[in-house]
Amino acid sequence: VFANVVRAPEDPILGVTVAYNKDPSPVKLNLGVGAYRTEEGKPLVLNVVRKAEQLLVNDRSRIKEYLPIVGLADFNKLSAKLILGADSPAIRGNLVTTVQCLSGTGSLRVGGEFLAKHYHQRTIYIPNPTWGNHTKIFTLAGLTVKTYRYYDPVTRGLNLQGLLEDLGSAPSGAIVLLHACAHNPTGVDPTLNQWEQIRQLIRSKNLLPFFDSAYQGFASGSLDKDAESVRMFVGDGGECFIAQSYAKNMGLYGERVGALSIVCRNADVASRVESQLKLVIRPMYSSPPIHGASIVAAILKDRNLYHEWTLELKAMADRIITMRKKLFDALSARGTPGDWSHIVKQIGMFTFTGLNTKQVNFMTQQYHIYMTSDGRISMAGLSSRTVPHLADAIHAAVTT
Ligand code: LMR
């Protein structure tokens, strides 16, 4: 009965790892998926995560019962505090409902499903370009996806004019997806001043902001600074959706731990919204898993563990910044044609190199370097040892 099923293509990002795994070359390098690697090229489990896990294991009172549909209460409270700030009036006024979800993807999907069911506007505007999964998540949730201009390939910076024009002509009430910081894939974020212009436009047109916060702490190394865009929107008293992921900033990729927060106009609305979120979640996966959320809660509620986390997070962010500098220097030393200053200007996990698909394919075939076909490279997958190899490959790709 399934004889007519056609083979689906691999995922544009996760499929890069599939191809990489099949390559027997000893010099192969995976710069596709955004996952942190150490200087030795190894995945990293943070020390603070190991400590928190130990605490959990030693606590004999811990059980494995189902969590409530909305997840672990402590985790939800602490997650809202992390993104909105400890002294957030929205939290104090009980305007925020937070539900634990399956990392960033799950949080976006639950938010999308809720909007498709309960919001009068079904159109969501996402930046062009954006993380490849956004279109699929929101389309399958039942929303109509449109794009707004974001990146200018000529300046390799933000196309603020295009962004304001496109959102300015969006229908009133439309949903707008915004990357809270470290825009994926471009590494280009608005300045605070530009955020303010975007906020004013969004509020004046009654658009609904939906933040994807997958890199808090990874852009600048500071958790508060990387939350400034979100806090600016929540500070004005308007509604806002926020999807948080702990995949990158706590290295909890495979634990699938994240949260969806919805900031409402008053506490009564917030509690009714929560009751409806439960109806979205229950038939989807009943309730979220307990382990990852317990790790996060243990770290966020303990002063010492929290402090230790901020140091480890900063160390990861700093290593990425060092890799940017090293790659830029290596290309300069080779006299590689073109302006490569965007490598050091862009922030977060990725560099949007400007290399085209043909050049990417060349680098994969000749140098066994794996990256997404849009020319995005994960700086977190690079190390001092592998920078020369990547620089050689880029140099060859642009000169042959
Ligand atoms: C990425 O963009 O590489 C990450 O967000 C991982 C993913 O799920 O795509």
Summarize the structure in words.
With 400 residues, the protein is α/β, with parallel strands linked by helices. It folds into 2 domains: 14-45 and 310-399, Alpha-Beta Complex (Aspartate Aminotransferase, domain 1), CATH 3.90.1150; 66-301, Type I PLP-dependent aspartate aminotransferase-like (Major domain) (Aspartate Aminotransferase, domain 2, 3-Layer(aba) Sandwich), CATH 3.40.640.10. Helices cover 46% and strands 14% of the residues. The protein has 15 helices and 13 strands. The strands form 4 sheets. A 7-stranded mixed sheet has the order 2-10-9-8-7-3-4. A two-stranded parallel ribbon has the order 1-12. β8, α9 (228-235) and β9 form a beta-alpha-beta unit. The chain is globular and about 65 Å long. The protein starts with 13 loop residues before the first helix and ends with a helix. The mean pLDDT is 97. (2S)-2-hydroxybutanedioic acid (LMR) is lined by residues 13, 33-34, 131, 133, 184.
Report the top-level CATH class of the largest domain.
Alpha Beta
CATH topological fold name of the largest domain: Aspartate Aminotransferase, domain 2
User: Low-confidence runs (pLDDT<50, min 5 residues)?
Assistant: none
Number of strands: 13
Shape: globular
Bound molecules: (2S)-2-hydroxybutanedioic acid
Q: What is the first-to-last residue Cα distance?
A: 49 Å
How many separate domains? 2
Order of helices and strands: HEHHHEHEHEEEHEHEHEEHHHHEHEEH
Which secondary structure elements does this structure contain, and how are they paired or packed?
Blueprint: H1 14-22, E1 29-30, H2 47-58, H3 73-84, H4 89-92, E2 96-101, H5 103-118, E3 123-128, H6 133-141, E4 144-149, E5 151-152, E6 157-158, H7 160-168, E7 175-179, H8 192-204, E8 208-213, H9 228-235, E9 240-245, E10 258-263, H10 267-285, H11 291-301, H12 303-334, H13 342-345, E11 350-352, H14 357-367, E12 369-370, E13 376-378, H15 387-399
The structure holds (2S)-2-hydroxybutanedioic acid.
